Amino acid sequence: MNFKINKTVPFVVKWGLTVVISAVILIPLYWIFISSIKPSNELFTAPIKYIPTNITFENYKKLFFELKLGEKALNTLFITTAALIISTIICLVGAYAFSKYKSRGLKIAYGAIVSSALIPGIVTARPLYDFMNKFNLVDTFLGLIILYTSALIPFTILILNNFLNEIPTSIYEAAEVDGCRAIQKMFYVTLPLMKPAIATISIINFITCLNDLFTPLFFARKIEVLSVGITTIPKETTYSMPWDLISTMGWIILIPIILFVLLFEKQIMDGIMAGGVKE
C-alpha cells in the first residue's frame, strides 16, 4: 500500500504541475488568437465566448494593407539575417581562438565579452546613441545590424566556446599528423563538427532578434520592424485601445517564435545544456 502511494504522489504532483503551467502559458496565447479573429464589438461581450462564432480576418487585412506589415516583416528579415550571419562568423572565429589558445589576456577578453551581457541595454543607451549619431548610424539599416550583432555576440561566444571545448584534442592532433595547418583545421575539422552548434545558436539568436523591442524603438524612427509594429497601431480615441488590432499584431509576432520552438526544440535544449554544463 505504501509502495503504491509513494509512486502515485509524485505522478500526480508532476502531471498536476504540468497542467497548471501549461494552462498559465497556453490560455493567454489562445485568448490573443481568438481576439485577433473576433470583430471589435465582440471582444468585451458578457458572458465571455471562448469559442468565437463570427470569425473575421479583417484585422489581418488592415495590418498588412494599411499599416504596411509586409514592409516591417521584410525589414525584420533583412536585419535579423544579416546580424545572424555576421555574429556567427565573428563568434566562430573568436570562440575557436578562446578555446584552442590559452593566455591570461585571452581569458580576460573572454570574461569581459561574456560578462558584458549582464549590463542592461538601458544603461548604455544614451552614450551608445551619441556614439552612433556621431557616425550617422542612427535610423539606418547598418546601424541596426551593428547593434543587433553586438547584442548577440556574448551569448554566441559562450555557447560556441563550450561546444569547442567538448571536441577531443586527439582529433586536432590527427589532423596535424596529416599536415593540416591552423586555418585548415578550423575549416575542415572544426566547422563540420560545429554544424549542430551553429544551427542551435542561429535558432536562439533568431528568436532573440525577433523579441528585441528596445533597440529598434530607441535607435530608429523611420525603419520599423515587427517588434515595434504594435506601437504604430493608431488609437481610436485618447482613452481607448484597438485591442483587436493589438491582439492580431501580437499573434503575428508570436507565430514564427512558436513555430521555431516547436520545430527545433531538441536543438535549442541541446544548445542551452551544452552552453551551461561543463564537464
Automatic annotation (TrEMBL):
Top-rank taxon of the source lineage equals Bacteria
UniProt-listed SUPFAM superfamilies? MetI-like
Q: Which PROSITE patterns match?
A: ABC_TM1 (PS50928)
Q: How does it sit in the membrane?
A: Multi-pass membrane protein
User: What would be one Pfam family of this protein?
Assistant: BPD_transp_1
Subcellular location per the Swiss-Prot or TrEMBL entry: Cell membrane
Sorted UniProt keywords: Cell membrane, Membrane, Sugar transport, Transmembrane, Transmembrane helix, Transport
- Enumerate the spans annotated as ABC transmembrane type-1 domain: 73-264
Query: What are the transmembrane regions?
Result: 12-33, 73-96, 108-129, 141-165, 186-207, 245-264
GO annotations under biological process?
A: transmembrane transport
GO CC annotations, alphabetized: plasma membrane
**PANTHER family in the record, alphabetically?**
MALTOSE TRANSPORT SYSTEM PERMEASE-RELATED, MALTOSE_MALTODEXTRIN TRANSPORT SYSTEM PERMEASE PROTEIN MALG
Q: Hey, which family's this protein in?
A: Belongs to the binding-protein-dependent transport system permease family. MalFG subfamily.
Report what the protein is called. Answer: Carbohydrate ABC transporter permease
Show the taxonomic lineage: Bacteria, Bacillati, Bacillota, Clostridia, Eubacteriales
